[in-house]
Each structure stands twice: as C-alpha cells, then as structure tokens.
Write a structure and sequence with these properties.
Length: about 200
Amino acid sequence: MADPKANKRRSLRLPEYDYSQAGAYFVTIWVNQRKCLLGEIMDGAIQLNDYGKIVSDCWHDLPRHYPNIELDAFVVMPNHVHGVVGLVGAGLPRPYNNQKAFPPGQPTLGQIIAYYKYQSTKVINVMRQAPGTKFWQRGYYEHVVRDDASLSRIREYIVNNPLRWELDRENLQARGQDDFDCWLASFTTGPVKQTRKL
C-alpha cells in the first residue's frame, strides 16, 4: 500500500499567518515544467512573446478585479514571473500604507494568485487552441515582506532579474549562484515582526 504522506507537499506558508492581512508579498509563479514559454533574454533584457505579453497584461489587470491590492515591482522571465503584491488597508503593518478600507472577506494572497493563473491560462489556451491545457506549475512561492529594507532589496532583484538570468536558479542552464537566493533563504519561518508604518 502506498504511503499517503509520500505525495504530500511540504507547505512553504508561515504557520498561523493570515494571508489576507495587509502587507506586501513577494511571489514567484512558474510555467508548467519550467518550460521557457514566455520569451527570451537578449542583451540582458526580456523579449516577451505573445504568451509573455498575456501574463504581463493579466498581472497588471489584477487591481481591476481586486481593488484593494496594489502591484509593485514585476518582471516576466522566460519560465516564471516575479512580483510584489500589496494588500492594502488601514493600519497596515508593513511597506504599504493606503487609506483603502478592507471589505468583509478580503481575498487571500492564494485566491489572488489562483485568479491570476486561471485568467492568464484561459487567454493563452484560447490563443493556442488548447482548452483545458495546464500552463502554470502547481502552487507558487511567496515571501512575506518584513520591512522596508527587504522590500527595497526585492524590488532591486526583480528589476535586475533579466540581467542576472545566467545566475537565476530558475534557469535550467544557470552557471553560478545568485546571492539573492542566499539572502532570501536566510529568513526563518518564525513569526513576522511588524515594522513602522510608512
């Protein structure tokens, strides 16, 4: 008999953390099987193909569907996207301080990412005439942005990510290691400390 725990994925989420609360979140979402379907890096810049343009457009359209989010730094890479999502509201503990009030039932980060993946997949599948075909890899990576210094470093990483493609661990032909990955791995999964309001 198969071990039911063998197929259970380890959660990357912080225990007891409410992912609908105000704050900034750094996310990475991968194309299924990490295939390079969104464009290519040329001379240190991403050249988006049609799929890459669709995922970019769908990302930037998220605030229309979720008015209480703000999008920050974002980049489309050949096989993944990185972005910072701010859930905004009064009393915000981290780098987003906006006066928008939360409606009852504020969506979680997971719900926002699921909607993004669904919408972009739907448009891409119409284009490639492949209804129901999986486009994104299951799940996503998230990091709760803990303070202004972290937000600044994450923004810099996102903006410069195409220049560092040769070191990117998402690049299946990477040659080397990016110091950002070491920095990000240095965070524990302990409770998030609240910082001053901006």
